[in-house]
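Fold this sequence, please.
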Amino acid sequence: MKNKRKIFNDPVYGFVNIPNDLIFDLIEHPYFQRLRRIKQLGLADFVYPGALHSRFQHAIGAMHLMTQTLNSLESKGIMIMDIEREAAQIAILLHDIGHGPFSHVLEYTILDGVSHESITEMIVEELNSEYQGRLQMALQMFRNTYGRPFFHQLISSQLDMDRMDYINRDSFFTGVAEGSIGVERIIKMFTVNNNQLMVEEKGLLSVENFLNARRMMYWQVYLHKTSVSAEVVLTKALERVKILLREGKSTFCPENLRPFLIQDVNAEMFREDSSYLQNFLELDDMDIWFAMKNWQNEEDPILSSLSKAFVNRRLFKVAIFEGGVSEKLIEKLRSKLLQNGVNPNDLNFYYQTGKISNSGYIPENSRIEILMKSGDIQDVAEASDLPTIKALGKIVEKHYLCWTNDVYLQDDIYQSRNQLV
C-alpha cells in the first residue's frame, strides 16, 4: 500500500506534514498539481527575480498554518472535532485552486466577470462529487454556511491563513524584509469567543505589525509600477488576439485558450457548459508564455510588438500621479503616437490610464477583534494606540499613465506638475 504520509521541506516553515490520506489524494489530483505551474506573484519576477514561487507552495504553506492554528486552539480547550479539522485543512488547501494563469493578472482578461473565488467553488463542488461527498463540510466552511463561523474566518478574513502565508512567503522570496511578520506569535495569540475568531490582547503588537507589513508589501511588491507595466503589455496583447480571432484572422492560439478569446465567457456559461471549466483547468502560465513567444512572429505588427516587449522585458513606461491624469497630457501623448504613424483606431494599444489602490485594514468587510484582559472585545483600530493603524482603514488611490517606451513624454509630465517614477 502506498505511503501517503509524506513530508514537504518548505523553505519558509521547514518540514510540513500531509495530515491524512484524503489530503494526500487531493494534493496529487491534476487540478491541484496545476498550481505548480502558476506563479504566486504573477509578473512580480519582472521586478524581483526571486519571486518565482507557485500557488502550490502557498496552498501547502496555508494548510500548514491552519494545522498549527487548530493545534493551538485545541491546547486552549477549544473543542475541534476530527472531521472539522480535516474540513478546515481541505478548505484552505483548495482556497486558490480556481486561479488562472499569472494568478490575478488575467482574472478579468480571459474571463468576463468570473472571479477566481467562484471558479474555486465550482472546482471544489466537482471534487466533492468525485470523492463521494467527503468535501461537503469544507465547502460549507468555504461558503461560511457552517455553524461555527471561526472556521471560515481562518480561511477568509482580514487575518486568515491565506494572508498570513502569502505575506510571509512573498516577503521571503522577494527579499522585501518589511513584509516579514511574526506568524507563530499571531497563531499562539488566536482564541475563539462565541464561535468568533479573536486575538488575545497580548498579541496586539503582532497584529499591528501584520497590518503594517501588508500595507508595505502592496506598495513595494503587489502594486509596483513595473508589475503594472508588465500587466498592461500582457493584457493588451491578449486584447489584440481577441480582435484578430473574432475578425477571422489566422492567428496562432493554444486550443485550451481559444474558447476564452473568441467569445466573452461569463459565469452562466461556466455553469451551463462544463467544457469551459475543463479548458480553464488546462491553462497555466506556460500556455501564455508559449503563446506570447509565438505571437512575436505574427504578421500583425501590433501583436508582434507587444509580444516582443513582454518576452524581452521592453516594457511600457509608467508615470504615477497622486491625482488624476490630465486630459491635456493624454492628448499630447495621442498626438505624438499619431506623429509616429500609429493608426488612430489603434491608439489604445499603445497607452493606458488606470488607478491602483491600497488599504491595510477595512473593518466594514470583517473586523479583527481583540479580546482584552478585561473581557471586553475591541476592534484592532480601537485597541491600538498607533495612529497608523486607524489610518490603514483609509483607501489610498494613485493614478497611472502607462505608454509605449518609444515615445518621450517626461518633459510633458513635469510640465503637468506630477511626479514621474
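The longest helix spans residues 225-246. Residues 417-421 have pLDDT under 50 and may be disordered.
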